[in-house]
Design brief:
The protein is α+β, with helices and mostly antiparallel strands. It has twelve helices and four strands; from the N terminus they run αααααββαααααββαα. It has one domain (about 1-15, about 50-100, about 110-440): Up-down Bundle (Outer membrane efflux proteins (OEP)). It has helices at about 1-15, 20-35, 45-55, 60-70, 70-90, 125, 130-195, 200-235, 260-270, 270-290, 330-395, 400-435, and strands at about 100-105, 115-120, 300-305, 315-320. A four-stranded antiparallel β-sheet has the order 1-2-3-4. A hairpin with a 5-residue loop joins β3 and β4. α2 (about 20-35) packs across α5 (about 70-90) and α2 packs across α7 (about 130-195).
Length: about 475
C-alpha cells in the first residue's frame, strides 16, 4: 500500500512538472502570426518604442509594429490564451484521492473508540492520464490556432485601415490642388468681367465651379479625419499621438510572378482555419479512443485500516467499482463518431471554399492590376493635353476656362488612379488572407513628390505681351 501511495504522489508531481510556460505558448502563437502575415509579432512595448516609430513617416510596416506594441486588441487576444492553457492544465491533473476517517464509540462502558481510516484512488484515471493529457494538448493547439487566426484578422484590418487613410491623404492633396486652380480661375474671371471680356453668365459659372471645388476640399478633409481617427483607434494611440510630417506615396505596382495553382496549394497547407479544423478532428478521434474504454467499470483501489475497540488493528486493500450492465458509454461513443463524420464533411466544404477564395482573389488582383496599368497609360495623355491647351492659351487660341477644364479632367483622373492603386493593394491583402501567407514582392516607398500637387501657373503672358 505504501508503494501505491508513492505512485499516486509521483503522478501528482509529474502533472505540475509537464506544464509549459505562458511565454512559450505565446511565442508559438506569435510565430504562427508571423508565418501568416510576414510581420514579426513583437511583445508589448513602452511608449518610447511607439514614439520612436511615430517620429518618422508612417509606413504600413510601422503601423503594424505599433499595433503589436500598443493595441489593446492584440494584448487581449494573447491574454485569452491563458484561459485555454488553464483548461489544458486542468485536464492533465489527476483526480484527487478519496480519503475517509471514522471514529465510533460503543455503548458498552469502558470500551475504547473504534477508528477507521481509508484512502482510495481511481485506477483508470491513472491509466488513461497520458491519453487525457494528449487530448488536452490537442485541444489547446486548436486554441492557439484560433488566437493566431484572430490576431491575423486584426493585422489585416490594420493594413486595410492604413491604406484607406493613406489614400484619403492623397485625395485631400489633390482636392487642395483643384481648389487652388479654381481659385485662380475665379480671380481671372473677376478681372475679365471688370474688363468686359466675359458676361454675367460666365462669371456665375466660374463662381459655381469654385464653390464645388471648395465643397470637394471640405469633404476630403472630413474623410481624412475619419480614417485618421479610425487608424489611431486601431493602433491604440491617444488624441495627442501620431502623425507624420511627410506623406508617403501609395506603393506602385510590384513585379508579379504569382501562379494560382501554387497559391491554392499553399492555402490548403497554411490556412489557420483549415489547420484548426484538422486539429478539431484529431481531438475528436483521440476522444473517441478514450470513450471506447467507457465499457470498463469505475474502479477505485486503496488502503483501509481499522482499529477495533478491542485494540486489534485490521488493515488491507480496498477495491470498489461499478458493474457496467446498462451504461457502457454507447451514447457518447455514437455522438463522437457522428461529430467526426460531420467535422470531416465540414473540412471538405472549407477546403473548396478556400480554393474558390484564392481563385477569385487572384482574378481580382489581376483585374485591378490591369486597371492601374490602364490609368498609368492614360496619365501622360492628360499631361500632354494640358501642355497643348496651355500653349493655345498663351497664343490666345483658347480661354482660361478651357485650360482649367483640362486641368480638372487631369485631377479627376489622378483621383481615380489613386483609388485604383488602393483597390489593387486591397485585393492583394485579401489574396494574402485567402492564401494564409504574405506574398513576397519588391517594394520601394519614397516621400511624396510635392510637384505632383502644384496648381497650374496662370500667370503666363500672351505671345507678344
Amino acid at each position: 500500500m505504501k508503494i501505491t501511495i508513492l505512485i499516486l504522489l509521483a503522478g501528482l508531481i509529474m502533472t505540475d512538472l509537464t506544464q509549459a510556460s505562458d511565454q512559450k505558448n505565446q511565442a508559438k502563437v506569435k510565430n504562427l502570426v508571423q508565418e501568416q502575415t510576414g510581420y514579426e509579432a513583437k511583445a508589448a512595448g513602452d511608449q518610447q518604442d511607439v514614439e520612436s516609430l511615430l517620429s518618422q513617416s508612417l509606413s504600413e510596416d510601422a503601423a503594424v509594429a505599433i499595433a503589436f506594441l500598443n493595441s489593446s486588441v492584440i494584448k487581449a487576444q494573447l491574454s485569452s490564451l491563458g484561459v485555454s492553457e488553464a483548461d489544458m492544465r486542468e485536464a492533465g491533473i489527476l483526480r484527487n484521492p478519496t480519503l475517509s476517517f471514522k471514529t465510533r464509540t460503543s455503548n458498552e462502558g469502558g470500551v475504547k473508540r473504534n477508528k477507521e481510516f481509508e484512502i482510495k484512488q481511481d485506477v483508470f484515471d491513472i491509466l488513461f492520464w497520458p491519453l487525457r493529457k494528449k487530448i488536452a494538448g490537442t485541444q489547446f493547439k486548436v486554441s492557439q490556432y484560433e488566437t493566431a487566426h484572430q490576431m491575423t484578422d486584426f493585422i489585416k484590418e490594420v493594413r486595410l485601415s492604413y491604406l484607406e487613410w493613406l489614400t484619403a491623404m492623397h485625395k485631400q492633396a489633390l482636392a487642395a490642388d483643384h481648389f487652388k486652380a479654381q481659385e485662380a480661375s475665379l480671380e481671372i474671371a473677376r478681372r475679365q468681367k471688370e474688363a468686359g471680356n466675359i458676361n454675367t453668365l460666365n462669371m456665375a459659372e466660374a463662381q459655381a465651379i469654385f464653390q464645388k471645388a471648395k465643397i470637394e476640399q471640405l469633404k476630403t478633409k472630413q474623410e481624412t479625419r475619419m480614417f485618421t481617427e479610425r487608424l489611431r483607434t486601431m493602433l491604440g494611440l491617444t488624441v495627442n499621438q501620431f502623425f507624420m510630417e511627410e506623406m508617403l506615396q501609395i506603393p506602385d505596382l510590384p513585379k508579379e510572378d504569382l501562379v494560382v495553382e501554387e497559391l491554392e496549394k499553399k492555402a490548403l497547407d497554411r490556412r489557420l482555419d483549415l489547420l484548426m479544423k484538422r486539429q478539431e478532428i484529431k481531438h475528436l478521434e483521440q476522444s473517441q479512443n478514450l470513450a471506447a474504454a467507457g465499457f470498463l467499470p469505475d474502479l477505485e483501489v486503496g488502503y483501509n485500516q481499522e482499529k477495533e475497540t478491542s485494540g486489534h488493528t485490521l488493515k488491507g486493500a480496498v477495491v470498489e467499482g461499478q458493474v457496467p450492465l446498462f451504461n457502457r458509454n454507447q451514447a457518447q461513443r455514437a455522438g463522437i463518431k457522428a461529430s467526426i463524420e460531420t467535422a470531416k464533411h465540414q473540412l471538405d466544404v472549407m477546403e473548396q471554399e478556400v480554393l474558390l477564395a484564392v481563385h477569385l482573389g487572384y482574378l481580382n488582383l489581376m483585374t485591378n492590376r490591369q486597371i492601374v496599368e490602364a490609368y498609368q497609360e492614360a496619365m501622360p495623355l492628360y499631361q500632354q493635353m494640358i501642355k497643348e491647351t496651355l500653349y493655345h492659351y498663351n497664343f490666345m487660341l483658347t480661354d482660361v476656362f478651357h485650360l482649367l477644364e483640362s486641368k480638372q479632367a487631369e485631377l479627376e483622373t489622378k483621383k481615380e488612379y489613386v483609388d485604383a492603386l488602393k483597390n489593387y493593394w486591397i485585393s492583394r491583402i485579401e489574396l494574402e488572407n485567402a492564401v494564409g501567407t504574405k506574398l513576397d514582392y519588391e517594394l520601394v516607398i519614397t516621400p511624396l513628390n510635392k510637384k505632383d500637387h502644384q496648381p497650374i501657373d496662370m500667370n503666363h503672358k500672351h505671345h507678344g505681351g
